[in-house]
Amino acid sequence: MKDLSKTRSATQAIFLVCGFGISSWAPMVPYAKDRLGLNDGSLGLLLLFLGAGAILTMPLTGFLIHKAGSQKVIIVSAFIIAITLPMLLLMQSPIAMAIGLFIFGSGIGAIDVAMNAHGVQVQNLYDKPIMSSLHGLFSVGGLCGAIGIGFLIKVGLEPLLAAICISVLLLTIVMTQIKFLMNAATEQKVIQRFSNDSALRTHKKGSWLNASIIFLGLMCFAVFLSEGAMLDWSAIFLRENRGIDKELTGVGYAAFSVAMAVMRLLGDRIISKIESRSVVIYGALIGAAGLALTIFTPWLVTSLAGFVLLGIGVANIVPVFFSEAGRLKSVSSSIAIPAITTMGYAGQLAGPAILGFIAHHYSLVSALGVTGLLLLFVSLAYALNKPEKILN
């Protein structure tokens, strides 16, 4: 394939756009809460519509990719994200906001599946690991998006105009890079080249019940849950268990996010030197050790060090899972990747709610401890499963 390096760069740009797009919503949440007069409980219920839109769209995206190709799915979903992002600052009723968040989440879910499906095929052409660096760009986009709108508002722009600027930036990136992505015909040729006949024929009802998909999906659920735990509970843990000021509680998630982004950008080199199996087994152990350090030591500095270790440990596990989903012998990647992505996002969405239930009946320390035990389970389960069994 000609210009493979440009295809890789364009794929990296799409991962950046996805991370930038979804994280740009975070600084807008307080404005939406104040405008609609919501309490915390109502806001939490409303935010579920974003996740619901993503999770319900992800399985459908696999079918669309098979029919139209990742390139078309990416461009349509990018427009959905860019159009709905500013509109979320205009909604005047909770019902309208719920619909807007559902559509926004649908765009995020579709582009997430499509970019991973495309990235796996680009990696196959390279014949060397690139998925970690792709997810690293997603993390970089997340860090940039979290401060992008805030910065524009700080320098004097109205929130709506700031959101429009972000949308224009996202569309500019997509429109300048979309031509370098594989079209549907090229993508199908690559899939056929790296799949066997049984995988290409597996586009029927019940394919999600494949044992390898269920295994990888459960592993994704556990790892995504740890990321969701940091996003939703790290600040509360630092405030209630380490006595840190409310204004500084975000430092825990920041430490986790920076560690994850750096490790993902370095991940391809790491995976090329040690087998991906070891990345999962030892990465999950490091993540579990980080959580243990956070919850079992009484000092703020060691708690933050635990967040860093968690970010280092789990950073490259999910990229490995996506790579393996793209190499399953019995199921096409257009089914496997949406399946494990959906299960993973279910962990990120439902997982923190489950942890909240545990924290309410026991303690937040117990809830984070369960998260650490799940990472130990990932390490043990992966160690006990032979690679040829996982990739059947």
List the helices and strands and how they pair.
Layout: H1 4-24, H2 29-36, H3 40-68, H4 70-87, H5 94-126, H6 131-154, H7 159-177, H8 184-194, H9 197-201, H10 211-242, H11 251-273, H12 276-296, H13 300-314, H14 317-325, H15 333-361, H16 364-384, H17 387-390
Helix pairs in contact: 1-4, 1-5, 1-6, 1-7, 3-4, 3-5, 3-15, 4-5, 4-7, 5-8, 5-15, 6-7, 6-11, 6-14, 10-11, 10-13, 10-14, 10-15, 10-16, 11-13, 12-13, 12-16, 15-16
Describe this structure in words.
The structure is a single chain. By secondary structure, the protein is mainly α. The protein has two domains: 191 residues, Growth Hormone, Chain: A, CATH 1.20.1250; 178 residues, Up-down Bundle (Growth Hormone, Chain: A). It is 82% helix and 0% strand. It is built from 17 helices and no strands. Helix 15 packs antiparallel against helix 16. The longest helix is centred in the N-terminal third of the chain and has 33 residues. The mean pLDDT is 86.
